[in-house]
Amino acid sequence: MNESEISQYIIGTFEGVDVVVASGDSFFFYNPDSNVPPDHRFPFVTLVTSDINDQFSNLNRPSVFRLNIGISKQTFRSLFGEPSYPSGRDSAAISGENSSDYDFTALDQIMPHPVYGRMLWVCVLNPSEETFETKVRQLLAEAYDLAVSKYKRRVARG
Asked: What's the N-to-C CA distance of the chain in angstroms?
């Protein structure tokens, strides 16, 4: 699947989603009433197309993009084990596995995000139709449900 197809899927499937596109990257927010100030938004999914924020995935290759998805601790743990919390400034130490166990340039592989894995984000570069249907759709639905829950808690607090 390509970036456009994935963006259309997210927008067409999940209600109340705002998309902000900046520098070719797309950030998907749950904002059903369009009233959450920009400085209070946090994306539940991002789609990045360049190495502007990190160089782990070599996204400057032609037509390569990375879909990033924030998931629950339980799901992350079931996929990769317990996330580790790096000491110091080592952002590559991201999961229960050694970060060298992941080739962050590999296409069509669900893996911890190279920087935000410790925050329970996963990523996949250029997911195939099969990977999208069998794995990514479920992860997107979970990320959306988490975003809806956070929004409802925030609204309830006033």
From this structure: 40
